[in-house]
Amino acid sequence: MAKIGLTEGFTLIPEGTHVFKITEVNYKEDFGKMEVVMQTAKGQKHIERFSLLNQNGEPNQGGLNAFSYFAKTALDDFTVKDIDDQELVGHFIRCEVEHEEVESNKTPGKMLKFVRLGDKEAAYGFDEEEAAPAAPKQSKPVQAEPAKQEGKKPAAFDLGSLLG
Question: Residue 72 CB: number of other CB atoms within 10 A?
Answer without folding.
Answer: 16
